[in-house]
Structure formats: C-alpha cells, structure tokens
Hints:
This protein has 186 residues and is α+β, with helices and mostly antiparallel strands. 27% of the residues lie in helices and 23% in strands. The protein has 5 helices and 9 strands; from the N terminus they run βαββαβαββαβαββ. The protein has helices at 9-21, 54-62, 79-82, 127-140, 161-170; strands spanning 2-5, 26-29, 43-47, 71-75, 94-97, 115-121, 144-149, 175-178, 181-184. A hairpin with a 2-residue loop joins β8 (175-178) and β9 (181-184). The N and C termini lie close together (5 Å).
Amino acid sequence: MKYIEFKQFDTLCTIVGEEIAKDKICGWFVDASEHGPRSLGFRSILADPRNANIKDRLNVIKGREMFRPVAPIILESEVSNWFDIDIPSPYMLLSAKILPHQKNKVLGIVHKDDTARIQTVNEKQNPKIYKLLNLYYNLTGIPILVNTSFNGCGEPIVETPEDAINTFKQLNLDILVIENFYFKKE
C-alpha cells in the first residue's frame, strides 16, 4: 500500500473524483465521526452511480445480502433536477423518485420502484464531501455519488484511522482517504 499526503484538499478531491469516475471504490474517512445508522459523508464508501452493477459489487465487498440497496449522496442544489423532491434531505431519511430522463444515467442508485433514499449535501453542512461532489459533477456531469457506510459485515462504522486502514485492507476497496492522506493498493 502506498500513500501520498496532500496539502491542498482540492487536489486530493480531484484525484479521488477521477478514480471514482474510473469505477474505483473509495473508503472515505474525513473530519468528525458521525452517529446513528447512516453514512452521512464522513465515514463512507463512495462509488460511481453510473455503474448499474455497483449495488451488487458493494454488497459482495461488504458481505451483505444481495437485496440491500445503496443510497445516493447528491448536491443539495441539484436534487430537484434529478428527483421529484425540492427540499433538503441531509440525513438520508426521505425516498424520492428519480426523474425519468435521469434514470439511465445513475442506474446504480435506483431501486426497482424508481426511488432512492437520498442524502443532500451543501457546503455548510459538509464542505469536504461537497467539494468532492462538485469536482465529480464537473468531471462527469453527475452531481451524485453512491454512499454506503464504511464498515464490513457485522462491524460498526470505522471510528479511528486504524479502523479505516484495517477495513481498507480487509475489504476489496481500491483507494482510501484519511483526512489529507490518499492510500492506494498496489
């Protein structure tokens, strides 16, 4: 495993966005811990929503049942351009229907009934994941990433950098971000 420390978080986000756009899966451990049953962009596994098979791939990686869905994290300013909802959903508590003309662009996050349990993000709420989403949006035209909790089957969400590294080694993840550090499996 090799790693690089970045002084500029923008540079790190650019590289991570490019890697996710190449269908790489990222462990994301940034800023304060989160509480509760959801991954809200601080302890996340992030992936490309354009990959129609990403749900199955992530369920295998995490050792979960194959029916388990994954959720999208989306720029708050773009939510009504993609879903039939025009209010924020910062805690991944609301489901919304994908707009028909957007569905085929993000098949990886759409449930069988054309809904998704969305999480919206703005700059104030989570500036770093917001920055990554914006850079990914500029790169791909998609303001959405797949977001699932950073843990393996039966394990709690990672809490420490050591947890993140151990989980990264155990799961079939491609890259890992811990604050300003970028790790890649060789």
